[in-house]
Amino acid sequence: MIEGVPLSHILVVSSIMFFVGVYGFVTRKNLLTMLISTELILNAVNINFVAFNRYLYPDKMEGHFFSLFIIAIAAAEAAVAIAIFISLYRNLKSIDVEDVDSLKH
Hints:
This protein is mainly alpha-helical. It has one domain (2-104): Helix Hairpins. The protein has helices at residues 7-27, 31-56, 62-92, 97-100.
């Protein structure tokens, strides 16, 4: 249960998730890995919303609603991104970021 877990522990886990996501987004060249890193960042934010809601306003549900909204946005983002990746792969036979630059010409 969350009652036994201190807020600082939850914040450490979500911070680690956030920075792993940022590191993955900045250092990787594969678009799919960058999408997964973005999902990690959004899930870290969701953990923060729920944790702060639980500890600051235990009788209210605003943090949970914000998290559901972010999950819906992330699902839509993932669907659009995967459709773009499929189109890129069909045209270029690769989903590397450097190969996407060749579409400018």
